[in-house]
Specification:
Distance between the termini: 19 Å
Number of helices: 12
Strand order of the largest sheet: 4-5-6-7-3-2-1-8-9-10-12-11
Radius of gyration: 21 Å
Largest sheet: 12 strands, antiparallel
Number of strands: 12
Structural class: alpha+beta
Strand content: 25-35%
Order of helices and strands: HEHHHHEEHHEEEEHHEHEEHEEH
């Protein structure tokens, strides 16, 4: 599991509202070459993905697991404070996000987020009020179009608006004016990478959540220790009705993928009754897994493993 310092990502969660408040001048139009989110995601990202934030909040899983947590911890307090000061709910203003991360396994990985649906114009008048409200809690510096927030534990988050409803958020070593400006140029060649493009084409990016993870990431250290060395793990999750997971693991060869798929098929056979659909197969050098869980099956599975809230 990727662990990120809580305070930095609380700021990221609130950026939907706060970023828009940072700029009184008219928004600059995003260059055509940067209109695609992938042009803003660094080429060396270990994890690249997208989240339909509006869609996930309509799911039963969100209501069952996330909303109760938001209601009782510091995040809820900050969100309510922001709603009061600015008249915007940041959890409802963001519609979709794209993201790229590197340094997985480190205490503070680097991250780039492109957030859509952020109401910049509505929040312009809120900036001075938010700066005063955060005094003593975080250091806030504005440099032209770019705002940098450094939390008490010295974790910076920097952001700027790309247009009237799109915010670029940077966390980690590039969370500064120069870093944000460089990323905002939209010159990343991620999409033109042949290896990435092949994985991206086989990923349903219209699902609720999709991700492509480089096999060199520390996230797979344990897997490599078992002799399994994927080149990439990728796929998507949809929570609009049933919980559907369409996952792939890219191996070195078709033969290796076939062997792993055969091994997994024998291992999951006994658990098939717990799912509406559980299929493992190979497709060239990919090991494929398709999992479908109705709400009834999901609740039963969560209860079995003691994962109910």
């Amino acid at each position: 599991m990727v662990r990120i310092r809580h305070s930095s990502w609380v700021v990221v969660a609130l950026v939907a509202g706060f970023a828009g408040a940072a700029f009184a001048q008219p928004a600059k139009k995003l260059p055509a070459k940067a209109a695609d989110d992938l042009a803003l995601i660094p080429m060396d990202s270990e994890v690249v993905g997208g989240l339909d934030f509006a869609q996930v909040q309509t799911s039963k899983l969100w209501k069952q697991f996330v909303e109760p947590q938001l209601a009782k911890n510091e995040v809820r307090k900050q969100i309510d404070e922001f709603k009061t000061n600015c008249g915007v709910d940041p959890m409802k203003s963001v519609t979709k996000m794209s993201f790229g991360m590197k340094g997985i396994g480190n205490p503070n990985p680097d991250g780039v987020i492109v957030a859509h649906g952020v109401p910049k114009a509505k929040l312009t008048a809120c900036f001075d009020k938010m700066v005063k409200a955060k005094q003593g809690q975080a250091k806030i510096v504005r440099d032209g179009d770019i705002v940098t927030i450094t939390t008490k534990d010295n974790q910076p988050v920097a952001f700027m608006f790309l247009d009237d409803s799109t915010a670029l958020v940077v966390v980690g070593t590039q969370a500064n004016t120069a870093g944000v400006k460089g990323i905002a140029k939209g010159t990343s060649t991620l999409r033109t990478s042949a290896a990435f493009s092949d994985l991206h084409k086989k990923t349903n990016t219209n699902d609720t959540l999709w991700m492509i993870i480089n096999g060199n990431s520390k996230a797979f250290d344990q897997m490599r220790g078992m002799g399994m060395k994927p080149k990439a793990v990728f796929g998507s999750v949809n929570v609009t009705k049933d919980l559907t997971m369409d996952l792939r693991m890219r191996m070195e060869s078709a033969g290796e993928a076939t062997n792993i798929a055969s091994m997994m098929q024998s291992q999951v056979k006994g658990a098939a009754g717990m799912f509406d659909k559980l299929q493992v197969s190979s497709d060239g050098a990919d090991v494929k897994a398709l999992v479908v869980l109705s709400d009834a099956k999901l609740q039963g599975l969560l209860k079995t493993f003691g994962a109910t809230p």
